[in-house]
Amino acid sequence: MLGNSTGKRKYTGRMGTGLAALAVLLVALFAALAAGPATPAQAQDAARFPLGSVVAARTGVNLRDQPMASGAKVAEMKVNERAIVAGGPFNDGWYWLDYKGTLAYASGSLLVLVDERYTPVPEETVTTTPTSGPVPSAQPTSPGSATSTAVAFPTQEVTTPSTPGDYEGLWLGEMATGGNVRVGPGLDKKILKGWWAGRRVLLYESATASDGGIWYRVSEPPEQPMWVHSSLVRRVAPVKFEGARYKGKWININITQQIVTAYEDGTPIKVTLTSTGKASTPTEIGVWKIYYRLPKQDMEGGNLASGDYYYLKDVPYPQYFHMSGEGLHGTYWHDNFGRPMSHGCVNLSTPMSEWFYGWARIGTVVWVHH
Fold it and tell me: Which pairing describes strands 82-90 and 54-57: parallel, antiparallel, or unpaired?
């Protein structure tokens, strides 16, 4: 339906094409042959890991550089060792994991969700308690734990807005160490997920918890509230704003900072992290206009030979601005916003993509630049 002659990406409509269907069947067949028959429990495990959740190895797990059994081995998780889910599922139930700072892929059939029902696999040779993988010893502890009163909270010298919707003084930061993301400012607030060291964040707002700790809000409505403690964050750079470059509504995509801003004349009204094209499949620089959009669409691209083939069903809110097939759209398969990740498109969180879809229209200017 949409495509280009460079082989950079290709999208098909919901019904797909004969060639696309054949490719999908081949991928599924190869994965099935490599992984062997899956039990019902394994099939359930492979589809139930949300972004930011913690998973453990149910057996020794080889981590690969591609979401397939033929990918090169980059690390090994021993039984009961843990990792954070950074993306997926890809292909036939593969997930992108953060394992002790290493980002690699593993089959979901070899993993189990660490939750209140989790029971470690018995090991006769285990002499020490399995560690929690990427969660560092410096992570603030939960209230009521034996060491919670002894934890120090260094305050980062970062100026952040104090009012929701105010972008003056907005900073780009990143996780200095892995840690918990909570639904509000304070150790008494529910843990939503875990983020790894190096994960980029926007510091939308600062707040002081009842214990005196400084917290940063790292999400923006319509995204759900997400807060991290200031001791886990280091600043990278102040967010760059462009002024009234175009009239009316227009979208600014800063490739260097990996930030998308919605403008009305010279006023930024929504600022969010994005993931644009990787070095091998860069997002086209220039000034474009949205020419086609729809609420959702199946997407595929890459190729089997190079190992980067993908087929993504019901990608939310695509808005195309370049005839090669590049556009803004929602993203449910990774949570690594702030870093180039795509085949050329502009990845947004699904709530943000819905907001941009409701705000923009056909003909809205899109400026892509460094």
Answer: antiparallel
Q: Which of 73, 204, 54 is nearest to 133 (CA)?
A: 54
Q: Which pLDDT score, from 0 to 100, does residue 162 have?
A: 53
pLDDT at position 160: 59
SS3 state at 30: helix
- 158, 238 contact by CB (below 8 A): no
Q: What is the pTM of this model?
A: 0.67
Distance separating alpha carbons of residues 337 and 288, to the nearest angstrom:
23
The Cα 132–Cα 135 span in angstroms is: 6
Per-position b or e across 294-310, b if 16+ CB within 10 A of its CB: eeebbbbbbeeeeeebb
CB atoms within 10 A of CB 47: 10
What separation in angstroms does the CA of 195 have from each of 177, 187, 236? 9, 16, 17
Rounded Cα–Cα distance for residues 158 and 151 (Å): 21
